[in-house]
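Notebook p. 47: complex prediction with adenosine-5'-diphosphate.
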Amino acid sequence: MVGGEKVELSERQEKIIQIVKENGPITGEKIAARLHLTRATLRPDLAILTMAGFLDARPRVGYFYTGKTGSELLTEKIKKFTIKDYHSIPVVIQENASVYDAISTMFLEDVGTLFVVDENSCLTGVLSRKDLLRASIGNQDLNAIPVHIIMTRMPNITVCQTDDLLIDAARKLIDKQIDGLPVVQETNYGLEVIGRITKTTITRVFVELVTNDDI
Ligand code: ADP
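Predicted complex, structure tokens below:
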């Protein structure tokens, strides 16, 4: 696993890196001979080190050391994460739904942000917890207020798309000081809401980086 400066490699993998650092480019056969092991025994270690980016392999030349540190490799990895692999299901509500409906939906679906859509499932607004609190203060009949009156509306909504980088979505959350982004796709009718990225998404990825066994 690549984790910051500290990379947990086996003793044998460390030795392989050292050999390649000093002698690369060097063939798998030669690395195996130096360690008094067979090429077959070494194959999984070489595969791990190559996949993790410590070593590069060139056909008929051999292995060489890429010179990248654990944190450089981690950064490279994070910069490849895209929205499509991490977004969750959006919770949407129709424009004519009442503030009361929106509050119920937020509790039932256990989310902090609702996306407001028109009849084509296209984005028209966003409702946060505070939007609903604000609308509730001093108002007796929450059933009588439709959400489109209080929502943050298009075109002032920050969105992302499936091929965007997760790190860019995280930056948008920070820069705009918001809890979530709708994942949208362009249609003839507008921006269809197909997912959501929230601070929880980013927190989960952060934890997975440390606990996942894959490199
Ligand atoms: P909270 O209101 O619970 O602090 P947010 O920080 O997400 O939640 O919302 C702050 C304000 O920003 C709210 O008025 C909300 O409607 C708006 N908002 C939330 N998400 C977005 C978004 N993706 N684009 C534009 N505005 C948003």
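Notes: DSSP finds nine helices and ten strands in the chain. Strands lie at 2-3, 6-7, 55-58, 62-65, 92-94, 113-117, 123-128, 152-153, 180-187, 190-198.
Next step: compare against the earlier run before touching the bench.
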